[in-house]
Structure formats: C-alpha cells, structure tokens
Amino acid sequence: MSRFYVEPDISIAKTLHTDFYTDAAVFDLAKEKIFSGSWQFVGDVGMVHEPGRCYPFTLLEKYIDEPLLLTRDQQNTIHCVSNVCTHRGTIVIKEPCKTANLRCRYHGRQFGLDGHFISMPEFKEVKNFPTADDNLARLPLFQWGPWLFVSLQLHAAPEPYLQDMIDRVGWLPVNDFVYRPELSKDYIVQSHWALYCENYLEGFHIPFVHAGLNAVLDFGNYVTELFRYSNLQLGIGKEGEGDVFDLPASSPDYGKQVAAYYFFVFPNMMFNFYPWGLSINIVKPLSQQQCKVSFLTYVWKEELFNRGAGADLNQVEMEDEEVVEAVQKGILSRYYRHGRYSVTREQGTHHFHRLIAEAME
Ligand code: FES
Ligand SMILES: [Fe+2]
Fold it and tell me: What's the predicted TM-score (pTM) here?
C-alpha cells in the first residue's frame, strides 16, 4: 500500500500523510504523476484575438516550466503548440506578435501556425527530412466559452475534468463574461500548493475564519458534491439574502437560493461563480513551501459586482492565507503525520486527498 493511501470510507480515513508536503522528491514526482496528465487553464481567447496572433507562455512557470505557444490561424482555429524549435531546441516565439508563419530566430526554420514544418535553410543534403518529428508538437486544447485549457498529455480527454461544471452552469452566457485585468491579482502564499487547495475544499472553516462570508451563507445548507476529477460546493444564501442567482427553470438548482457555485477542478483550479460573474483561481506551485494563486476576474453583471458571497474577496483571501500559512508551519512538526475528516464537512478535502493518492500510486 502506498504511503499516501487514503481510505475511501471517510469515516475511517486518515488525511494525507505529511510526507506529501515535506518530501522534496515527492514534490518533484507530482509534476509527472499529478500535473502532466491534468488539464490546465491557459487564459481566454482574447490572448489571440485575430488570425495570425501568437501568444507565447510558460505552463506553470517555476514548476512544470513547459514553453508553449497559443496561435490563431487564418481559418480562425486556435492551436496550442510546443514553443521549442525542432532544430536545436531554442524558443521559437519570444513575444506576443502577429505573423503569417512561425519563423525561428536562430536558423530560420519555419512552421505554420498549427505547428507543421514548412521550410529550413541549408537542409537540402539532409536525408529522411523532414519527418513528423520536425513539426512542433500540437497539444490538446479545450475551449469552454472564452476559456482555454491545455493538457500536456497528447490524448487526454477534458470531459472527466470539466464537463460536470459545464453541465451545471452551462446556462450562463459565459461568452458575455468580460475579463477585468484591473480586478485581477496574483497572491504569493507561503504554503505548499496542496494545502491551499484543501483549505478551499471545505466550508467547515467559514464560521471560524470568515465572519463576513458567514453572514451571507447558510452554513446548515452548505453542501459538497463530488464528481470524477472535480467537485462543487454549493453556497446557499441565508434567508433574506438578496444576492442569489436568478436561475432558469432548466437549471438543476432551480428553486434554490444559490449565492455561489464553488467548483474545484483537480489538481489546482477553482471556478467561483457569483451572481455578478466569475472569479477563477489558479494555484501554481513555486516551491514546496510557496505557491502563487492567480485570481482572474470576469464580470457579467457589473451592477451586482462585489456583493453577496462574492464581496470582499481580497479580505476572504487574507483570512484564508493566514490559516493556510499556519498549516504550512504545522505540517513540519515531528508530532503531526495525519489527521481525520469530518464526515459531513470535509468531503471535498477527502476527495482531493483520494485523487492525490490515486495519482501518486
Ligand atoms: S534552433 Fe530553430 S532553426 Fe535552429
Ligand atoms: Fe476560506
């Protein structure tokens, strides 16, 4: 049995062994075991807003560190390709730009915007050239509304990760959501990335840690639903709470006073839908004891912004960081290895630990 085994029965299960957070080799191993097969948020279609646009980026900088390139070709198809030249391995495109073809700065190899090899100077004498290996690797890209997701695994299916969320809130006019850079922000948190996630995954701490949020949410009716690689915490508004979704009859939640949908997609993505729009939080590992959490704000109904359960998110974040950073100190203790779960309040955290255990096997 792996040292990270977590019992499926939450009532007898112990939490993940602290070696997961403290062992440097495990932190590295998780790159392949947990992240390489997952779907990762890239950004939105505005990054390549017209044909010919190219947007280079590094997937999970300082951790996965994979150089990738987003492009939009002349047929308006968006691609995600490796940004590493198949000749001698330099970075092909350094800055966002508009171009007909991708041309490597080093020795002039050219590729189409979908990554296929086009030409190479001084290569007439080279035998068995070009082959499929000379194309830039093309990665699976998934689009929901304006949002783009990529997987490093060439044949990964997005549905087990994303479809449950899409089915649940698919009635929202997500293409009308507007990205607001001035309302978006990165937070550096002094904790292991998984500690940040597992705090997010339980509403148990809300009455203890978030006085403002607790005044809005009905803790008694707060529920967690588990899916294959994602889960949902449904925040029901207190009696009289006005800032709730105006749900269509087609919604499975029709008739409920939903103040917030908190979706978690394994291993590191959070999608918080409020009546005003969406706050996406991406947790990016930086080191064993530090992560960066990118908050991206998409506003749908401006007049509802910063109200209800989606108010003062910066304040809520400060409250979360304080407890998560204290856990980071605590898990280094020689006296703590495992905890236990509340059967009614920590299903999300248990689910997350089970998924980690499964991936690390
Ligand atoms: S490394 Fe790109 S052409 Fe040589
Ligand atoms: Fe919290």
Answer: 0.97
